[in-house]
Design brief:
The structure holds two protein chains of two kinds. Chain A has helices spanning about 25-60, 70-100, 110-130, 150-180, 185-215, 225-255, 265-280, 295-310, 310-330, 335-345, 350-370, 385-390, 395-415, 420-450, 470-500, 530-550. By secondary structure, chain A is mostly helical. Helices cover about 20% and strands about 40% of the residues of chain B. Chain B has one helix spanning about 5-30; strands at about 60-65, 65-75, 75-80, 80-85, 90-95, 100-105, 110-115, 120-125, 130-135, 150-155. In chain B, strand 1 and strand 2 (about 65-75) form a beta hairpin. The chains are: A mainly alpha, B alpha+beta.
Chain lengths: ~575, ~160
């Protein structure tokens, strides 16, 4: 991307062909690549939000989905598109941007394009399989529900594509380290590659699961060990959540301060937070299986303790972000809690998105601790509480942060001014208010006992279900506001490219400088390879016990079924 | 590595709270038996109908105010569809699936467990209040999942 002053630097991509003529040497090439990732995420978000809106209406009994496009098919599409596709494309784009910008060099972007292409092909194949009704298995695809093979193959391609991106980013850091021994990896590249390494370790679980499910869906094997596939899924399923959060943290630490002239509070603590997330995101998946048979209470408790451990980097992040606010405010002569809150640029959509996201994340954290609390999970497991929880985390803090960042990133990459800035700001406020209403309604419903993953909660007029309708209406009202927010975002994002003329003076999405008073970083924090190895060891230690237990119980194999 | 004094206090406070939470959960688990349902017992999911005791699902009285209830979960119903117990009964539920993954939940009680084909799940509850409780599947199991429910009548 940025050729920089040292344009004589050797072209560095160890893996890829050396015909320099075909390398994309300009900044534009990298910009187009990242912009394509971001726009793919935008398109998917729009489609996913429409399905979400219709689900809200169904559950409030305002509409009934027709048999040719039933509720569960739509729910599968919503879950896969939002949880697995939208977030992944945005994060791969964001991390590519952060790595490329902080390591100026002449580079090939071809490997990353291949990654995007493989991800896109996988997404299209999976989405078509779901929409045609051949994979109504929800985004968790619990066996022995058996989807068409193209569902599993497409999802595997989506994951495989991200590995190309991971390789590309890691190669850039290795290239930097070779030429600058003794120098710290630039912070944006460090946090990006740290996130990608965590992701690669996590996706090994779902890849192993796919290696079981693909031959089975093709009819080559007669049955599957259901609990084994569940454990492999959740080995991946929880770090997936932390992949989203780390993506949002990249923006909170490095981009948000630029909205008010702030600085990065501490280089060392930023690295420490990301290294902690790399280590602790994976060995916690059993907290999704507290109510599963076949796993002894001791292993579940081990994962409870580890899950609480992964809260610590979030405490560190909260401190660093508030310190950043306060330091910048004091420099501007503003003191006092309420004055500082008022002083922050809430009318800048690029700040308001992450800013409101942070407020939501406080509640997301509270709920998360309840869910992780071992025996307490019995009260909320598979209720609407859980749905409320993951909407006030991924649908609030994460998605609002991404949308806010996109309001800087898209103009920066497209070299165009932001289209309709007031609409952009409105999208954030609508989304925030809507998410508060929707998520609180869902939490409330969950405490009343309303189950998740159900098209209709009336239970044939059962007495206990009478009180369940009201919070579902609340969720539908809140969901409508969120969907409007998403619509506004899609309009602004596409309008920026299609209606506004090129404007070369439009500033880049920049990364905040380090605070002048920040202390030095111990070199050990920069050793990503060692931390990655330790992360793998921790994952093995946390799973060796429960996995051995399940395998040694000689679980029977279950034949596949299509019950939709 | 230098860590700001206020941050040390903040992190100590946070970790302290987490330690208290873990301690509470541990005491509740060891002292009061508050442990999530974790039965380890396998069964061939294709032969549930001929495997005792699931070949005759239903309620068995095992003592004074003590019952065992054997359930087969299958798309899209539970067998038995209704059980009736006197108020104050302690019921231990044994559930298995003859097809896909199901849930087994009675809202407003602590009864909630996954039902995984190949395994037998257990969960116990004392029904102190009279009433008709909904026993529902709370994991997606197919196109008519929302109709998969049974009744527990407490008299």
């Amino acid at each position: 991307m940025t050729a920089g002053p040292a344009s004589a630097d050797p072209v560095g991509t160890a893996l890829w062909p050396k015909d320099n003529e075909k390398f994309d040497l300009s900044r534009e090439a990298g910009d187009l690549l990242v912009l394509t990732h971001i726009y793919t995420a935008t398109l998917v978000l729009g489609v996913g939000a429409l399905f979400g809106l219709l689900q809200g209406f169904s559950r409030a009994s305002w509409i009934t989905m027709p048999a040719w496009f039933d509720y569960y098919r739509m729910l599968t599409a919503h879950g896969v598109l939002m949880a697995l596709v939208f977030t992944t494309f945005f994060i791969t784009g964001l991390l590519t941007y952060a790595t490329y910008r902080s390591i100026p060099r002449v580079r090939s972007v071809r490997l990353n394009w291949i990654g995007w292409s493989v991800m896109s092909i996988g997404t299209v194949v999976t989405a078509l399989t779901i929409l045609s009704g051949n994979a109504t298995v929800l985004y968790t695809f619990y066996a022995p529900l058996k989807a068409s093979p193209t569902f599993y193959l497409g999802a595997t391609l989506l994951v495989a594509g991200t590995w190309f991106v991971a390789y590309d980013l890691i190669e850039n850091v290795v290239w930097f380290k070779r030429r600058n021994p003794g120098t710290l990896i630039p912070l944006p590249a460090f946090v990006s590659v740290c996130t990608m390494i965590m992701w690669v370790i996590a996706t090994l679980g779902v890849t192993a699961e796919m290696l079981i499910l693909i031959p089975w869906s093709l009819g080559w094997t007669p049955g599957v060990d259901v609990s084994l596939t569940r454990m492999l899924f959740w080995y991946f399923g929880h770090p997936l959540v932390y992949f989203w959060i780390m993506g949002a943290y990249v923006i909170w630490y490095l981009v948000v301060p630029t909205a008010f002239g702030g600085t990065v509070f501490s280089d060392a603590l930023t690295r420490l937070a990301f290294v902690s997330l790399l280590l602790l995101s994976t060995p916690v998946g059993l907290h999704h299986e507290y109510l599963d048979p076949g796993i002894s209470p001791g292993w579940k408790f081990l994962h409870t303790v580890l899950t609480f451990g992964v809260v610590i980097p979030s405490f560190m992040t909260a401190f660093a972000i508030f310190a950043t606010f306060e330091i910048a405010a004091r420099k501007a002569g503003v003191t006092g809690f309420f004055n500082i809150v008022r002083w922050l640029p809430w009318k800048d959509p690029a700040f308001a998105g992450p800013g409101f996201g942070m407020i939501l994340f406080i509640f997301g954290g509270f709920g998360g601790i309840v869910n992780a609390s071992y025996s307490m999970d019995v009260l909320v497991h598979n209720t609407m509480w859980i749905v409320g929880h993951f909407h006030i985390t991924v649908g609030g803090p994460v998605a609002l942060t991404f949308v806010g960042a996109a309001y800087r990133l898209v103009p920066s990459l497209a070299r165009r001014r932001l289209f309709a800035p007031k609409l952009a700001l409105a999208s954030i406020y609508l989304w925030f208010v809507g998410m508060v209403i929707m998520s609180f309604s869902m939490h409330w419903a969950g405490l009343l006992g309303v189950p998740r993953r159900t098209s209709d909660v009336s239970y044939a007029g059962a007495v206990g279900a009478a009180a369940w309708h009201t919070p579902m209406v609340g969720a539908a009202v809140g969901g409508t506001l969120v969907a409007l927010g998403v619509l506004f975002f899609v309009i602004v994002a596409t309008g920026t490219y299609t209606t506004n003329r090129r404007d070369e003076d439009n500033p880049d999405l920049a990364f905040a400088p380090l605070d002048a008073e920040a202390a030095n970083t111990p070199p050990v924090l920069d050793k990503l390879g060692r931390w990655a190895a330790l992360a793998i060891v921790l994952a093995i230690l946390a799973y060796a016990g429960p996995l051995t237990q399940q395998l040694s119980a000689h679980a029977y194999l279950a034949p596949g079924m299509r019950t939709w | 590595m230098h860590i700001h004094r206020l941050e040390k206090i903040w992190l100590a406070f946070g970790m302290g709270i987490l330690a208290v939470f873990v301690a509470v959960l541990a005491v509740a688990a060891i002292g009061e038996g508050f442990v999530p349902p974790s039965n380890i017992q396998t069964i061939d999911p294709t032969k549930v109908a001929e495997t005792p005791p699931f070949d005759h699902p239903g309620l068995r009285k095992v003592g004074d105010h003590a019952y065992e209830a054997y359930y087969v979960a299958h798309i899209f119903s539970f067998d038995p569809a209704t059980i009736t117990v006197p108020r104050g009964s302690r019921v231990t539920f044994y559930v298995t699936s003859s097809d896909v993954e199901h849930g087994f939940s009675i809202p407003a009680t602590g009864v909630n467990t996954m039902v995984t084909p190949g395994w037998v799940s257990t969960v116990s509850h004392t029904f102190s209040d009279a009433g008709t409780f909904i026993l529902m599947c709370n994991e997606f199991c197919g196109i008519a999942h929302q109709t998969m429910a049974a009744k527990v009548v407490v008299q």
